[in-house]
């Protein structure tokens, strides 16, 4: 049984997009659509989660993700507490559960969890009291479900449908929790062709089993694409033996106007941020007319509002 | 039971007649999704209102959210005018407990501070749980708690009241 769903199909936690039914994903996207209006009003608040306490539990630093969760919770009128906990031996196993127990004793209603270890959010979700929901805000290489959802929301807003699209995910798929969530969501929502493009050293072995086509050549991989999703390249990958240099990477896998021209003329360019300009993406593309990178940030708030509202109120599908 | 309810279009005309003597041209009309918007659109035409008609979806303001969750199809509210110091005619199809009207007023105040709000409903069915009364009601009748009055709209725009 999926630990994220109650026996009657309601959303209990959001830990991964893997295994969530299409109806649940669509329901979250539809709900996010209705929250878009709130951000444009003078009073950017609705009282849905008034009196609820949401704890941003960040064992790994991330200013932007934490901020968007915080804004989303505040727009729902929840009380938000941010806890940035340095990763150390204190944040493993029993120590994490002690932290969770303490916060539960402070009448927490929801935990937003980011951790460098894959499975950390699942671990906490298994432990919490029945009235508490857990949202995974990124765990190790495993999943980043709200980023995956906001990417789907962006694609739907700009392309309308999923069933007729070719989507390319470019870059460090091997280490990317974002890419995993994107692939699960895209295939669940019926995208007929999902491609991953990257050097062999940055693509997981057997990635085809996730239902994607593998390309090691940008020209071939981008041809005819409707959506190009660039992934962030972590600096530490450069220090290891996986890549020769940033310049070399940009030459073969960086998105330039010339390479983007190989995709469909109306293709959109996405990036989960923050971007390494001149490494995975050229500034002309990042700031160009096909870029939807800033709308992604705006949509991220509406999507996170939808997830929190559905968890707090029950997401019957 | 259906046949015993008056024609909705006749009721809307009656409602417009009762509002007209005190209706100022600068008043804005706001309907509550879904039935209230249908009635508001008709009143808007009958009262020759100058401002566009507004629509409220009160799903984010319901007091039973934590029990029943979000309505699956929330439509965005649309208030294409400034509410500050305006006279608002708030319109709903059926007035029952008063909780929907309370939620609508809470939402309106998130858009600005109106000069006043007047409430017009097609049917006041009784069963109030809050101290809210309509300024205009085309039909007042007592309906047992287990029954519902629904306003539905056909594809051709025809409105029908039914009791179930």
UniProtKB/TrEMBL annotation, chain B:
Keywords: Glycosyltransferase, Transferase. It is an enzyme of class 2 (transferase). InterPro entries: PRTase-like, PRTase_dom, PyrR_bifunctional. Signal peptide: none annotated. It comes from Thiobacillus denitrificans (strain ATCC 25259 / T1). Residues 10-136 form the Phosphoribosyltransferase domain. Its EC number is 2.4.2.9. It holds the Pfam family Pribosyltran. One of its GO terms (molecular function) is uracil phosphoribosyltransferase activity. This is Uracil phosphoribosyltransferase.
